[in-house]
Amino acid sequence: MTSPSSSRDRVLGRVRRALADVPEAPEVARDYLVSHTPDDPAGVLDLLHDNLVDYRAGVHRSTRQGLPALVGRLLAERGARTVVVPPGLPGAWLAGSDARQRFDDVPLTPAELDSTDAVVTGCALAVAETGTVVLDAGPGQGRRALTLIPDLHVCVVEAPGQVVASLPQALPRLDPTRPMTWISGPSATSDIELDRVEGVHGPRTLEVVLVVD
């Protein structure tokens, strides 16, 4: 009986012989646009804002000085009594909140995360043309479970430094070896009749804060 490896080698050999006289593929032109958005930081930020809203995220703008009060208000309005604090999150961000803080320096258990109302994180980047926030488990973001289990995710984006117009601009700034999470709005799915249900695979509510100074 012929072994699978020898059969495979025979088939691949036939393919190579059949392609022996085929000319090499031409060079692919790479002169396409890396962005369809004018190079204007204010316009890029407005586009990000609009696309986040289209994905049903709450979007807010704040100064750095006003950030703690805004984060505290968002947590209070959603009734968050407990909040996960990822390692490296600036302590000042939660200075305006009365929610009980649960630190993940020693990883919280799935049950502890499930019983926590909210999480506050930073991000690695935000992509304006797609309305996407990218997390890569860096300081202030934490491991992926932190942003998948609590029902409310408040994500802080610092503009303009963390905002890019397009995916081609984002990818060179991201480390492909890091565990990345790409978030476009709150978690949602639809059944065959297109009835939308939110909070199935992650947070039911996404609040994005654009810090603009």
TrEMBL record:
Name listed for the protein in its UniProt record: Lactate utilization protein C
Pfam families given in the database record: LUD_dom (PF02589)
Coiled coil stretches, renumbered: none
InterPro entries hit by this protein: FTHF_cligase-like_sf, LUD_dom, NagB/RpiA_transferase-like
SUPFAM superfamilies according to UniProt: NagB/RpiA/CoA transferase-like (SSF100950)
Domain LUD, chain residue ranges per copy: 113-211
